[in-house]
């Protein structure tokens, strides 16, 4: 009944955010779905288990998790990025999402989207779909086929968007419930997804909050991405103390695990709210924030206050469906913020990697680290450029994160199995 | 004797910086090495010329030019980027460049470096080699083999670097002269290359300036990349008014065409110097400047003052040997600068493209545009993802710049010929 195996290679991961753990030419032992331990020499008790030796050119790292990604925006990556948020939504994004009322269109886009998640080594993700359940189901089916793990949310909107993307509060709520019933397996789960406060009335937010509480479902939405948006929310919800409080008021903030994408422009009060709530993840999407001229999250400030900061590619405002790109952009953006805000420290590469693996993984449970009893989710990396063999294992990882393409990923493991 | 042909596809380029010229389903006629014109219908006089039809999925754009790239740093891309400039030079770059005293090492690195230029569609570039002429010759040979165009400089240093990278002023000068004699053809030319002021004594700078003047050779070096570096130059050259003036004093500033990489921290006086000199190119290397926490060039300020701003990948401090990445990073970085300096406008995508093609091209002559009498340097782009065919031609270009890999480049033309 036991299913124990060992992989051999240079094993690299982060246990704490400040340093990479590097185990050169070592074995990682996996019992069924989970990590048993890492060993320089294989202990006698494992002498008869099967060993896969990936050779001295390979590094073995935790696979990536993307905490904020819009599946319908796959084809929109890189398009129309001379605009800012609100104009970009109106001129490109909503028009594009309307196309998903046609299931045949979803059947064209979603398989390629899911293939790209797989190719890029993003084996788990938290996904915004659209309001259209028939198309949303296509997305779930494709994720299942590729054996990827995800939270997928039916998007909810009942105001301030084109009519064909709006549903009544009641209809949006009922459709959310019926979509939830379509989920059947452990790896793919539902998540409550109000698009963002400006697109939802209090009535809709209240219904979604109740549903999240009753069914113990996590929540994903957007928060404080753009200064104009923050002002807009203030005018739409004058009774709320701040933007975070809009969600809080309707039980959509930190009662269950909650992903708040962007979170750039938070008041001190909102920062305190986030730091006092272990269910709250502020999701940093650096490329998206650059592309839409939104700003740069003060990520090290947040981390140093004990806030959980996750990372997301946020395609299509982000232009690369790649967590290595997101990791290195997070580091770059933090350096650029430091240039203008000298008092804020710079994010190191190991920290950004820790966010994309350990922190992002914690949204899914014991995921993202190679410590004992974690699910063994991993990528085996071997750069096709033979010159890379001049580099030390940690340099191979740096090179992969900054420069290599998904061609370097030669094997993908999810919960102990090759997928 | 005539060698006239036409290519068909969606032809896109920039004539002025503010807009893309888009010629859907059109013909570009090439006579020998140069552009004749672009036509929606082929005129009768061309009815018998050969036509290559790349189909309605292809876009045809000017090929890329990289105005600042360090060939020996190829293997260093992405490595050690938690450091700032001076520390990064000392801990990684100089150590790495020392390896090129071994010609066999150059024989391993340079072919791959040149292959990557070719793959990425960078058909012309201005390259820093190392101090080692035997290895530098390998680089020239490889460029010749791949039929690429370049300016290549032997690096000059006689102080403030590890001993094995220093030569006496006399030796450095003589070696530069002897390297120049090794150049034999039109496409590959020499360029005078003092590394940067801190690594050169006045004596060496003076010799190089004289050589540039006498042989009418262009110059490439670094300028005002990092605040500490600017202070250092001030202490090393107390008699010069400012950093630019160090080069000016020794005839290395704008007497011949001059590439000044980075140029982030310029005084008003230096900005005026650059804007009054048509030979001066300030070369923006956004990724490098982010990775080394250097800062962000005020690129739109410079452009609006009439300064020639070029673009460079600056590997290995830049982490992508790709001009599309450099173009989109320049746009992103300008947006991020705008967030902190609201009074400065944002660089548009067409402007960044114009810099990487028209401005960069002008360093090589009539290059970088598809206007009449320009050398026909071009890339044919066809994204392997069939979904991209839903996009309009200009959106295909946006997608390529932001998202696609070099796999999308299906043909490369330099001076009218497929290479």
TrEMBL record, chains A, B:
Q: Locate the Amidohydrolase-related domain: which residues?
A: 59-397
GO biological processes: guanine metabolic process
Q: Which UniProt key words apply to this protein?
A: Hydrolase, Metal-binding, Zinc
Organism the protein comes from: Vallitalea longa
Annotated protein name in UniProt:
Guanine deaminase
Tell me, what is one Gene Ontology molecular-function annotation carried by this entry? guanine deaminase activity
Names of required cofactors: Zn(2+)
What Pfam families does the record tag this protein with? Answer: Amidohydro_1
KW Metal-binding (keyword) present: yes
Q: Name one GO cellular component term.
A: cytosol
């Amino acid at each position: 009944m036991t299913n124990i195996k060992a992989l051999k290679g240079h094993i690299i991961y982060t246990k704490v955010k400040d340093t990479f753990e590097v185990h050169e030419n070592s074995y990682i032992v996996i019992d069924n779905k989970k990590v048993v331990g890492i060993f320089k020499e294989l202990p006698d008790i494992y002498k008869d288990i099967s060993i896969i030796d990936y050779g001295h050119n390979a590094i073995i790292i935790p696979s990536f998790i993307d905490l904020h990604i819009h599946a319908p925006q796959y084809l929109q990556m890189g398009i129309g990025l001379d605009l800012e948020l609100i104009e970009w939504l109106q001129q490109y994004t909503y028009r594009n999402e309307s196309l998903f009322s046609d299931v045949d269109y979803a059947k064209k886009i979603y398989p390629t989207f899911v293939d790209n998640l797989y190719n890029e080594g993003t084996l788990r993700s938290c996904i915004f779909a659209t309001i259209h359940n028939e198309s949303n189901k296509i997305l779930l089916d494709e994720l299942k086929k590729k054996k990827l793990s995800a939270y997928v949310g039916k998007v909810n909107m009942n105001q301030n968007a084109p009519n064909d993307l709006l549903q009544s509060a009641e209809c949006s709520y009922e459709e959310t419930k019926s979509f939830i019933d379509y989920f059947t397996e452990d790896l793919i789960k539902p998540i409550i997804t109000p698009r963002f406060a400006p697109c939802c009335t209090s009535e809709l937010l209240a219904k979604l909050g109740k549903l999240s509480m009753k069914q113990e479902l996590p929540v994903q939405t957007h928060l404080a991405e753009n200064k104009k948006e923050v002002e807009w929310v203030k005018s739409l919800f004058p009774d709320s103390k701040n933007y975070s409080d809009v969600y809080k008021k309707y039980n959509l903030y930190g009662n269950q695990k909650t992903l708040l994408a962007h979170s750039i422009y938070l008041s001190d009060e909102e920062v305190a709210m986030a730091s006092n709530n272990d269910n709250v993840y502020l999701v940093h999407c650096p490329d998206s924030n650059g592309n839409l001229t939104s700003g740069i999250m003060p990520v090290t400030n947040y981390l140093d206050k004990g806030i959980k900061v996750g990372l997301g590619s946020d395609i299509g405002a982000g232009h690369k469906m790649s967590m290595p790109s997101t990791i290195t952009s997070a580091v770059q953006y933090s350096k650029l913020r430091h240039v203008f805000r000298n008092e804020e420290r710079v994010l190191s590469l190991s920290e950004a990697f820790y966010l994309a693996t350990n922190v992002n993984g914690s949204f899914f449970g014991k995921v993202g680290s190679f410590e004992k009893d974690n699910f063994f989710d991993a990528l085996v990396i071997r750069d096709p450029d033979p010159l890379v063999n001049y580099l030390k294992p940690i340099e191979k990882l740096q090179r992969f994160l900054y420069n290599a393409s998904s061609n370097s990923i030669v094997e993908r493991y999810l919960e102990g199995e090759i997928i």
